[in-house]
Amino acid sequence: MRIGELATLAGVSTRTVRHYHHLNLLPEPERLANGYREYRLRDAVVLTRVRRLAELGMSLDEIRDVLADDQGRELREVLLELDADLARQQETIGARRNRLAALLAETDLHPDSTVSPDMAKVLRDLSVEGSKFAEMDRELLALMDTVADPADRAGFIDLFRPLTEPEAAARGHALYARLDELTDADPGDPRVATLAADLAAHFPDEMVTALVANLDAAPDHLRPPTTENADGGHWLTTMYPELSAAQTEVFRLVMVMLKERG
Amino acid sequence: MRIGELATLAGVSTRTVRHYHHLNLLPEPERLANGYREYRLRDAVVLTRVRRLAELGMSLDEIRDVLADDQGRELREVLLELDADLARQQETIGARRNRLAALLAETDLHPDSTVSPDMAKVLRDLSVEGSKFAEMDRELLALMDTVADPADRAGFIDLFRPLTEPEAAARGHALYARLDELTDADPGDPRVATLAADLAAHFPDEMVTALVANLDAAPDHLRPPTTENADGGHWLTTMYPELSAAQTEVFRLVMVMLKERG
DNA sequence: ACTTGACCTTGTCGTAGCGTCAACGTGTCC
DNA sequence: GGACACGTTGACGCTACGACAAGGTCAAGT
Questions:
Q1: CA distance B99 to A55
Q2: CA at B39, C1' at D21: how many angstroms apart?
Q3: Is the per-residue pLDDT at A78 higher than 60?
Q4: CA–CA separation, A196 and B124 (whole Å)
Q5: The pTM is what?
Q6: Which residues in chain A touch residue B139, judged by CB atoms under 8 angstroms apart?
Q7: Comparing A70-84, A171-185, B90-104, which segment has the lowest mean pLDDT?
Q8: Contact assignment for B139 to A57 by CB distance below 8 Å
Q9: Which of B162, B163, B143 is nearest to B153 (CA)?
Q10: pLDDT tens, B116-128?
Q11: Do the beta carbons of residue A182 and residue B83 sit within 8 Å?
Q12: Most buried residue, A16, A45, B105, B180, by CB count within 10 Å?
């Protein structure tokens, strides 16, 4: 038998056979005078045994070990381990399909993007035409949706809910507009302080206490600008370098006010 | 944000981030004076979006295409396709686990090797101490178990059943012994013809007709030695070069006799 | 001033299981 | 003698990074 016959007999390519030789999975047979490999039935038996195990999902290394260990108890152990491995794979694939189904249900309603269903609603409600700040918040929320743990995620959604409720939406849009207006303003502009006060007034008391507690626990680079971040807003300026000084000042003031209330 | 912060924020390694840059999955951000990459929140949003899709099992190429196609209908198609792909994977893994379970049940009874359950029984019954020919037949059957389609496989098992039935086993062992005896014999030895006749007598009529029909349809290199294979037993000598001339002559005669009967 | 340590940079090799060339020799058939 | 189907070795490609190497940068401690 030459390599092509062996390969078609076992249902593999000749490349596969040579690959197995290279890995010492299949012993190199004798060569004919012209250099061709000459196989016997024994080789076909070994090859099909290898294939059988490979098709079960075993790695070629494992197969080599098992066959080298000359049939027996070792095989059972490896097969059991393999079964456990396959079970894990099934679970992860199942989990993926579940997440996929959730995503598909969402994109079915609105072909937005890849976020969780409840967050998607907030993002839709928060889409304000032409406001750079609304877009910023949407970015922030989209990010928090995936990086924060579920408890914090719910907190963030609540944080923005006042801006998305139908009766409050108009007021929310007005706030975004006032922020956008400060693009070219001076940090000492009188509108800065009043806007900060209006923004701070938006947060219910119990949310403020939870928020302040969370902030103290947050890692430094995720902490919004407060008086402690001495350079005047580390977080906001690194995350959004394009903000004007007046705009960052608004947020600094808001944080100070919230700190005092919490 | 520097690369380490971005990476921990998204829950990946810095290597992964740079890899995504290399693949144009994530745009290269501006560099600081020292050459460090300086990221913004926008980048974190993109990165988490990529990760979200990657964790669903999409390839990075697909993700790039989807994100490039700027959100929308394309995403749905790809997700549906992905779901179908995952479903296929689940099926194949399920099939693997089924085969594994069958194998485990078999090795539970007898730690033989990797064959189907019914074949395993034949192989056990066929194990004759010290007979080279019994081993050959075991090899042959093990091979046929995996390469032949189920119908032929059953045929092969039936072919050997006369040798494995308890009441006939002794006669089978005797036949193997008589074959083994011919190792150093001359092809013209009188024992050759009588052994061939005894062997041929073992096959029931209906099996002979089926066998002969099958042989005509078989590809050339799988066809056992007959008078048509003019060089005196192509199949047997290539598969088992260590056979003596007397032994191959036995099989040639058997095939001739069967041909006449069929 | 020096060292440590934690970052950052680019570049290269390795992974599993082959597919897919390339560049070449062999053997058979018309 | 040319086509064609086979065989040979060798090397690169693929996925999604991990794990080095061999440096440069920066803040803190001694």
A1: 10
A2: 26
A3: yes
A4: 86
A5: 0.79
A6: 41-42, 45
A7: A70-84
A8: no
A9: B143
A10: 667 777 777 777 7
A11: no
A12: A45
CA dist A211 and A204 (Å) reads 11
User: Residue A37: enclosing H or E segment and its boundaries?
Assistant: strand A37-38
B5–A114 C-beta distance less than 8 A: no
Say yes or no: A32 contacts chain B, CB-CB below 8 A: no
The answer to whether the Cβ–Cβ distance between B41 and A80 falls below 8 Å is no
pLDDT higher than 70, residue B219: no
- In this prediction, what percent of chain B has a pLDDT beyond 90? 24
A99 closest CB neighbour out of B56, B75, B113? B56
Verify whether the Cβ–Cβ distance B101 to A86 is below 8 Å. no
Q: Please, are residues A100 and A92 in contact by the beta-carbon 8 Å criterion?
A: no
| Residue B107 contacts A where some CB pair is shorter than 8 Å | yes
Asked if B196 contacts B257 with a C-beta cutoff of 8 angstroms, the reply is: yes
Maximal C-alpha separation, chain A:
97
Cα torsion A184, A187, A191, A197 to 10°: value is: 130
The contacts of residue B120 (CB under 8 Å, 6+ apart) are: B106, B110, B112, B113
Residue environment code for B14-39, b if the CB has 16+ CB neighbours within 10 A, otherwise e? eebbeebeeeebbeebeeeeeeebeb
pLDDT in tens, B49-69: 999 999 998 999 999 988 887
Print the SS3 string covering chain B: CCHHHHHHHHCCCHHHHHHHHHCCCCCCCCECCCCCECCCHHHHHHHHHHHHHHHCCCCHHHHHHHHHCCCCHHHHHHHHHHHHHHHHHHHHHHHHHHHHHHHHHHHHHCCCCCCCHHHHHHHHHCCCCCCHHHHHHHHHHHHHHHHCCHHHHHHHHHHHHHHHCHHHHHHHHHHHHHHHHHHHCCCCCHHHHHHHHHHHHCCCHHHHHHHHHHHHHCCHHHCCCCCCCCCCCHHHHHHCCCCCHHHHHHHHHHHHHHHHHC
Query: Taking CA atoms, what residue in A is nearest to B93?
Result: A86
pLDDT exceeds cutoff 50 at B23: yes
Q: What is the DSSP string of A43-106?
A: HHHHHHHHHHHHHTT--HHHHHHHHHTTSSHHHHHHHHHHHHHHHHHHHHHHHHHHHHHHHHHH
